[in-house]
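Q: Hi! First time doing this. I have a protein sequence and I read that you can turn it into a structure. Is that right? Here it is:
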Amino acid sequence: MAVTVLMFVAAPQARADDRDKCRHAIEKAEARLDDAIHHHGERSHEAEDRRRDLNAERQRCWDRYHQWWNGREHRWETEQNWEGHP
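A: Yes, that's right. Below is the predicted 3D structure, encoded as structure tokens:
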């Protein structure tokens, strides 16, 4: 009985921890994009590469949680609409 209760208590915490890792990965990718834009320009090859990396992180989160972290607005998005976001 106690094991069953622990499973239900631990499962939401594990999901929150995993989602937090996803959020952190997106935030790092956003920071790398910002850095590339700052050093090389908005439409540079480096910035385009970082945009692809950021979108790949967003896709990984979407595939796993059907959400993606919007670091600019500090919230989870529930629609797959990151194309209009930097």
